[in-house]
Design brief:
By secondary structure, this protein is α/β, with parallel strands linked by helices. It is built from 13 helices and 14 strands. 39% of the residues lie in helices and 20% in strands. The two termini are 34 Å apart.
């Protein structure tokens, strides 16, 4: 009798544990080009006071190589993160043979969850495009623009109006196509915040968004507020897009500014997760850019302070592993050193329950 009682109690405990680990929402933040050097730089610039990365509840690492190259581009790495499948460089949302891949957004939509994307670049860029588009070339921006209008996305915030205009032949024709797609179009966050609960396309620039202090955090807040009205849950992808550009330009000061904006958006996501159980926040990069190293400014280690220098190894991407920071419900379920495609597949699995 006692043994049966213990078994029953163990079964109940298991059920409660499974329920506690159920992931209803995922906020997936991707720092484009953000490597461990970028994160370490921000720790140093913050005088080693804890940053949002230091407050992660769990940490893992991912390998970023693509199917055909030891150094990935954003299309292949974005596809791996979005779909759980590796593909060739420049290929977006599909296998090299053209087979379309099911993305995290697709899995969420199948379960009546809302989906959204927020970026500092254009919405047709490689990383956001990996979540909704299928093309042999990441540079086919006009096709990607059309696919965005046919996608299951409920809110999209970023740049890229020029590619809608190009695809439909004129700005007026683009506006008509957007209206016919079911999206309400806005050109600023303020009026969008006052809009209805219908699908929203908030396009703030022809291409990339000019630096705006606090933009990414405000856009993340706006997207979460829109998506959280869906009782079934949501998936939101937020990209700090220009971290990568500053790495390509070997601009440490510029990257610090982009990293601060990205970290503010992570703060918004983590705060939401803390107040809304069932929310998993995942922060990672698609690859590392620039080969950033932080080195001593003086070889005399008898000095109390040698100073430091930020040195760059390349103006391209590197093959270094990148970090994964986890917060909220299910943070303990992603561990160790994994492929980028493993991380993508795990997120699809978690949201499918």
């Amino acid at each position: 009798m006692k043994r049966r009682l213990l078994i029953a109690l163990a079964t109940i405990a298991t059920l409660f544990t499974a329920e506690a680990q159920e992931v209803k929402n995922i906020i997936f933040l991707i720092g484009d080009g953000m490597g461990l050097g970028s994160v370490s730089m921000m720790q140093l610039e913050n005088n080693y006071e804890p940053t949002i990365f230091d407050r992660a509840e769990n940490v893992a690492l991912q390998k970023t190589y693509s199917l055909d190259n030891r150094v990935t581009d954003s299309a292949a790495s974005g596809t791996a993160l979005a779909t759980g499948n590796k593909t060739n460089n420049t290929v977006l949302g599909q296998l090299p043979d053209g087979t379309p891949l099911l993305s995290l957004f697709d899995v969420a939509a199948e379960r009546d969850k809302a989906t959204g994307v927020v970026v500092t670049t254009y919405l047709q860029h490689a990383t956001p495009g990996a979540f909704y588009a299928h093309t042999a070339s990441r540079h086919d921006y006009t096709t990607i623009a059309e696919q965005l209008l046919r996608s299951n996305i409920d809110i999209a915030i970023g740049g890229g109006m020029a590619f809608f205009d190009e695809r439909y032949g004129s700005h007026e024709a683009a506006l008509e196509a957007i209206a016919e797609s079911g999206f309400q179009l806005y050109d600023n966050l303020t009026t969008a915040a006052e809009g209805s609960d219908s699908k929203q396309l908030i396009v703030l620039a022809d291409k990339e968004i000019e630096p705006r202090e606090g933009y990414l955090a405000r856009a993340t807040e706006r997207a979460i507020a829109h998506l959280a009205t869906n009782d079934a849950g949501f998936v939101l992808m937020v990209e700090g897009s220009i971290i990568d550009g500053m790495g390509h330009g070997n601009d440490a000061r510029g990257q610090q500014g982009e990293m601060r904006d990205f970290m503010e958006a992570v703060e918004v996501a983590v705060e939401y997760a803390q107040h809304n159980p069932g929310t998993l926040v995942v922060v990672t990069a698609d690859h590392e850019t620039g080969g950033l190293a932080i080195v001593s400014g003086n070889s005399d280690f008898n000095l109390s302070e040698q100073g430091i220098e930020y040195r760059w190894a390349t103006d391209g991407h590197s093959g270094a592993m990148v970090p994964i920071y986890l917060y909220g419900t299910g943070a303990e379920l992603i561990n160790g050193v994994m492929e980028n495609s493993e991380l993508g597949a795990k997120l699809k699995e978690l949201i499918s329950h």
